Amino acid sequence: VMERYYNFAGAGIYWARRLGLPAVLEVNALIVDPPEVRKRRLDDLLGGPMRRWAVTQCRWATRIVTPLHTTVPAEIPRDRIVEIPWGANTARFRPAVRTERAGEIAALRARLGLPPEARVVVFLGSFRAWHGAQEFADAGRRLATERDDVYFLLVGKGPQRPAVEACCRESGQMARFRFAGSVPYDDVPLYLGLAEVGVAPFQTRHHPALQAGGFFWSPLKVFEYMAMGLPVVTTAIPPLDRIIRAGEEGLLVPEGDMARLARAMGALLDAPERAQALGQRARERVVAEYSWVRHCERLERVLREAVREGKSTGQGAS
């Protein structure tokens, strides 16, 4: 049995325990919220029933898979936890899209009103505070004052979008920004195909759980940038700095440093040959380490280990 952990769940792990079956618990966020979260404060007031049930599920699971082990309470032995990052669809997201779908990309460029000579930097993802859309726009406005050829493409939606658009408009730089909104998944490679640099300026200070447990989200946008052969600019925090190694697949900047973020984007635009080389290495790395194919291979290995362990302990006997 495999079950993804979420609040008030656990039926799969419970019945696996009752039936003597090996079980794998998938955890993609902090199991125990930090004290700043309202749900945690309520649970504490009630005596911690949610925390006890969460820990029980971890104890009952044969294996726990998670992008970062800190999502799992400290009392659970680390040797039962397997870190497995998410991935990119490297067959769908690939540099060849730029030639294979060149006509569609050209039509998209025209529809977005991007001049033929425009150098495009892209942000892909949710407009939530911790994704850094506001920081991307702030850095973009800095860079736009220094050069006439750069345009900034933001793909996605979320609660911060109106505020980000308003800031761009009030700064007088709105003409250099394109807000594409939510787009069909099949079209995302076309939007990335317009860009020369992919940016993921994550801001953990806006997210209490990320501050408490580290950056436990597997960054899909980073993996998809890499799969498209884009050099990546992201935040210099673990494990992002292990996915994008400074000077190898992209550039790293301190969290919240908009001046450094703007300079990093500009540096890649100023050195297209270097940027292309970084993007090529990013593509090679994501295929080798961060594709959905690699994710499934790792997950299958864990499932087989859980079955073998179950047989050795008498679980799963027919």
Number of helices: 14
Largest sheet: 6 strands, parallel
Structural class: alpha/beta
Counting DSSP E segments of at least 2 residues, the number of strands comes to 10
Q: What is the CA-atom radius of gyration, in angstroms?
A: 22 Å
Whole-Å distance between the termini?
15 Å
Report the β-strand fraction as a percent range. 5-15%
Side-by-side strand order of the widest sheet: 7-6-5-8-9-10
Average residue-wise pLDDT: 95
- Uncertain runs are none
- H/E topology pattern: EHEHHEEHHEHEHEHEHHEHEHHH
Percentage of residues assigned to helices: 40-55%
The coarse silhouette is globular
Give a short synopsis of this structure.
This protein has helices spanning 11-19, 38-45, 49-60, 97-100, 102-111, 133-144, 161-170, 188-193, 208-213, 220-227, 240-243, 258-270, 272-289, 292-312; strands at 2-4, 24-26, 63-66, 81-83, 119-124, 150-155, 177-181, 197-200, 232-235, 250-253. The longest helix has 21 residues, at 292-312.
